[in-house]
Amino acid sequence: MSVQDVMATAEIAARRRSGVTAVLVALVVLLALLSLGIGPVRLSPVAVIDALFGGGSDVAQVIVREIRLPRMILAVAIGAILGVSGAALQGLLRNPLAAPELFGAPQSAAFGAVLVISLGLADVRSYALPVAAIIFAFASVFMLLAVAGRNAGLLILILAGLAISSLAGATTALVMNLSANPFVVFEIAFWLLGSLEDRSFRHVMLALPFIVAGAIILFSQRNAFRALSLGEEAAQSLGVDVDRLRLLVIAGVALGVGGAVAVSGTIGFIGLVAPHLMRPLIGHDPTRLLVPSALTGSALLLAADIAVRIIPSTSDIKVGVLTSIIGVPFFLYLIMRERRALAGGVG
Q1: 81-124 pLDDT tens trace
Q2: Phi-psi region of 269 (alpha: psi -120 to 50; beta: other; left: phi over 0)
Q3: 59 vs 153, which has greater pLDDT?
Q4: Short-list 267, 291, 280, CA closest to 88
Q5: Which of 52, 217, 227, 250 is nearest to 146 (CA)?
Q6: What is the predicted pLDDT for the residue at 346?
Q7: How far is CA 139 from the centre of its chain?
Q8: Has keyword Mitochondrion (predicted)?
Q9: Tens of pLDDT along 212-269?
Q10: How far is Cα 333 from Cα 245, in angstroms, rounded to an integer?
């Protein structure tokens, strides 16, 4: 293949990536408008836009700006940080099944938040909540890498992640059992299911600084992921400090996921699904996968949050329940695909 052919192929790929990104941005904007309009009181896109900019009726303004806008902002931000965290972990470990929820990060963050709530150290609107969630999320990912090792295979990663998730779940249940306040237990039980319902701008201000800080850290390491895809030795020869990269990725994931869990509870599988949906369209370069994964995560969580509002039910369906119902079959499909790939490689 000539140099001209290579350049033409690269240009076509770049145009394709730009087109996919533009479509994702438009999809997120469309879903955001739908999120602001859907609920017990249905509002048209025109009414939503009017209410956002101070027009329309007073009732519409309150519904859009005070009730639904914080929920929409959180869905965009939390979906984005989960998507980019999944892509970053997959790039760091060079494993397509890496994701925050499979390593116990959300479950551990939830345990940290539950612990401070049950001990009376914080309520659901205190900044102590995300701090505790971040500390425990950091500890879970650090523990995973310490237990599984740097070059762990798929089976070891899944087993280590399962052990950490189980430990976090068991300790959370223990804290709930030992709590003397039944109202706190009831609140925690529903909070752990994952929901964006009844969130205010106080919750946005609680989570957004940590989510943004985590995203900045992960995006700042995007060029190192490309070098790391060649292997640790090759990355080090190119000037990448692998140990520092690993620590920064852990810190970024812990900040972002901890901040998200502190206001939404446990919302799983967004970080696993988003990068996989983008690889056939964007390619396997982990550097170029970060932004599309973030946008896809936002679109997925917005769509799930819209779905829980329109699905007929006698009680409110939690968005974390819906994402798990969709995510678990997808995860099983990925495991079967990896098994076939390994069998083909052995053969």
Answers
A1: 999 999 998 888 887 878 887 778 888 888 888 888 888 776 66
A2: left
A3: 59
A4: 291
A5: 250
A6: 52
A7: 18
A8: no
A9: 999 999 999 988 988 888 888 888 888 888 888 888 888 898 899 888 988 888 898 8
A10: 30
pLDDT, residue 1, reads 55
d(Cα 95, Cα 105) in Å, to the nearest integer? 17
The CATH number of residue 321's host domain is 1.10.3470.10
Report the predicted TM-score, pTM, of the whole model to 2 decimal places: 0.89
Q: How many structural domains comprise the chain?
A: 1
Tell how far CA 262 is from the center of its chain: 13
Q: Which residue has the tokens 């869905």?
A: 75
User: In the predicted model, what is the mean pLDDT of the chain?
Assistant: 85
- The answer to whether 43 and 68 have CB atoms below 8 angstroms apart is no
Q: Is the pLDDT confidence value at 290 over 70? A: yes
User: pLDDT digit string (tens) for 21-78?
Assistant: 999 999 999 999 999 999 888 998 889 999 998 888 888 999 999 999 999 999 999 9
In order of 1, 87, 126, 134, 165, the CA distances from 113 in angstroms are: 56, 25, 10, 9, 15
* CB within 8 Å of 104: residues ≥ 6 apart: 140, 144, 161, 164, 165, 167, 168
Is residue 7 a part of any domain in this protein? no
Q: Is residue 140 part of a domain?
A: yes
CA distance 63 to 39: 9
Looking at residue 59, its amino acid is V
Place of tokens 């939503």: 48
| Distance from C-alpha of 87 to C-alpha of 93, rounded to nearest angstrom | 10
Whether 218 maps to a domain, the answer reads: yes
In a domain, 110, yes or no: yes
- The stretches of the chain forming alpha helices (DSSP H) are 3-37, 45-52, 58-61, 69-93, 105-118, 128-148, 154-178, 182-192, 201-220, 222-228, 232-237, 242-264, 270-282, 286-310, 319-346
Rounded Cα–Cα distance for residues 340 and 193 (Å): 33
What are the backbone angles phi and psi of residue 229, rounded to the nearest 5°? -65, -20
Give the distance, in angstroms, between the CA of residue 116 and the centroid of all CA atoms in the same chain: 23
